[in-house]
Design goal:
Radius of gyration: 20 Å
Number of domains: 1
Strand content: under 5%
Largest sheet: none
Shape: globular
Number of strands: 0
Oligomer: single chain
Helix content: over 70%
Distance between the termini: 14 Å
């Protein structure tokens, strides 16, 4: 059943606290500058910090969207939710490290200052974390569809469960492609393992348009699940 939006489950409340903790870890990792030179160094880290912050917020929004669509409190959902929260907290610092090294390089502030093995490992860590998080989201949606009879999902919710799983599997595919590039391309082309994520914009736009049209045809009198 679709949640009315007036109540927040214990799962959501706990999850919001963990997401808040993850963002707090980003903030407390910033030291108060002791002089102007240290302040300039802190300002140079603004864009990587913002990118990491935005990524955590995006993961939170996907989590929020799932629980607006489904009143999910079954055991599998709780387990997958805990795995998701673990991944978010664990990967906060590695994500910040990745952005702190990639973004200055993309802005032309110098090449990546690390060995070939370290450069590959950096992209492998990022992509592995991304694949794991998106994979958990896909499993959460698939679990809802698999248990559609037990959970008494409406036809529209069943459609949303399939569409949600497909959407996140698309993200998983892009992450796996990044992993493959990080393992195989020459070190001077290692940046392609990061740029490949730019495909997410057009691919998800096309997928969203096709899913939206299919949903409108299948349920012309139904309004989309609340986000």
């Amino acid at each position: 059943m679709i949640r009315s939006g007036r109540e927040v489950s214990r799962i959501e409340g706990f999850s919001d606290a963990v997401f808040g903790f993850a963002l707090t870890l980003l903030v407390v990792s910033l030291e108060v500058p002791a002089d102007f030179a240290a302040l300039k160094m802190t300002l140079r880290g603004f864009i990587p910090f913002a990118a990491t912050f935005a990524l955590v917020c995006w993961i939170w929004y996907e989590h929020y969207t799932f629980f607006r669509k489904f009143d999910a409190e079954d055991g599998i959902t709780i387990l997958l939710n805990c795995v998701l929260l673990f991944l978010v907290v664990f990967f906060v610092y590695p994500l910040k490290f990745v952005f702190s090294n990639i973004i200055p390089s993309l802005l032309g502030r110098g090449p990546l200052r690390m060995s070939e093995s370290d450069g590959r490992l950096m992209f492998l860590v990022y992509s592995a974390g991304f694949v794991a998080i998106m994979g958990v989201f896909a499993l959460m949606y698939w679990n809802q569809y698999y248990k559609r009879g037990e959970l008494q999902l409406s036809p529209a919710q069943q459609f949303d469960a399939r569409a949600g799983a497909r959407m996140h599997l698309l993200s998983v595919a892009i992450g796996l492609l990044s992993l493959r590039l990080a393992q195989t391309v020459r070190i001077d082309l290692i940046w392609t393992a990061g740029v490949i994520y730019g495909l997410m914009g057009p691919l998800h736009t096309i997928n969203g348009m096709l899913s939206g049209r299919a949903r409108a045809r299948a349920f012309p009198s139904s309004t989309p699940a609340r986000r």
